[in-house]
Amino acid sequence: MNTDYGQFYFDLHTHTIASGHGTFDTAEELFKSAAKKSLLSLGISDHAPAYPGSCRESYFRNLPLAPSVRFGINAYYGVELNILNKEGDIDLSPEILNKLDYAIISLHTRVTAPMSCSDNTAAYINAMRHPKVMILGHPDDDTYPVDYESLLHAAKEKSVFPEINNSSLRQDSGRVNSHRNIKTILNISKKLDLPVLLSSDSHGRKHIGDFSGIIPLLKETDFPRELILNTRKSLYLIRHE
Ligand SMILES: [Zn+2]
Ligand SMILES: [Zn+2]
Predict the structure, then answer these.
(1) Integer Cα distance of 230 and 138 in angstroms
(2) Residue 160 C-alpha to ligand 1 middle, in angstroms?
(3) Could you tell me the distance, in angstroms and rounded to a whole number, from the CA of residue 15 to the centre of ligand 2?
(4) Model pTM?
């Protein structure tokens, strides 16, 4: 995929049939799609167990046994955790989380009722304490308004990266004011010199590596290429143990 921003090499927010909604595609089909789209790496991040219809802990327990290269693509195995409350509790045990490559922390209406702006912000910040948390999942949704200055300062301090979620920008996303909020996130991240991660949040193979909705916002905010993690060939931030 070529854009004015050059090549993007990976996508870490994707879902398989194990998430229980939105797709019947298996991990194998996602990796094949990533190979066709010339990505170097792909991360699978199915919904953690509190999400209705998603997989159980045993699925995540066994992920570290999956192959580390599939169809020539570097394979990473993570999780999209649910933040359960303002204390930042999450829905996977530290024992299992420690064995995964990375975790995304998200708020979902099917799991956690919207709270006040200060409580939503505290929820994200408190959830950063768990092992392997690397990515703020779609923090662009006014269903869960947040204080972006506080949130992104905390992210910078804890080496957690805000995601810029392409699915949030789709007509059918259901997320509120994402277009405006993503511009705010990009502007503050630029000011803080905080790298961001572009994500497809693809359910199935169809949108793997699709960041097309984000490009106009990167241009509009004059966002520096060097602060986009996906332009780096090495996922230095992910540690295999
Ligand atoms: Zn999500
Ligand atoms: Zn997701």
Answers:
(1) 16
(2) 17
(3) 6
(4) 0.96
The radius of gyration of the chain from alpha carbons, rounded to an integer in Å, stands at 16
237: confidence class by pLDDT, cuts 50, 70, 90: low
Summarize pLDDT for 129-166 with one digit per residue, the tens: 998 999 999 999 999 999 999 999 999 999 999 999 99
Q: For residue 80, how far is its CA from the centre of ligand 2 (angstroms)?
A: 6
Q: How far is CA 101 from CA 30, 121, 197, in A?
A: 18, 25, 16
Which structural domains are found in the chain, ordered by start?
8-231 (3.20.20.140)
Q: How far is the CA of 36 from the centre of ligand 2 (A)?
A: 22
Distance 204 CA to ligand 2 centre (A): 11
Q: How far is the CA of 105 from the centre of ligand 1 (A)?
A: 8
Burial class from Cβ neighbours inside 10 Å (0-12, 13-18, 19+) for residue 173 reads middle
Mean pLDDT in the chain? 95
CA distance 116 to 127: 16
State in Å: Cα 235 to ligand 1 middle. Answer: 22
Ligand 1 ion: nearby residues, β-carbon < 5 Å: 106
What are the tokens at 72? 């020539």
From the CA of 144, the nearest ligand is: 1
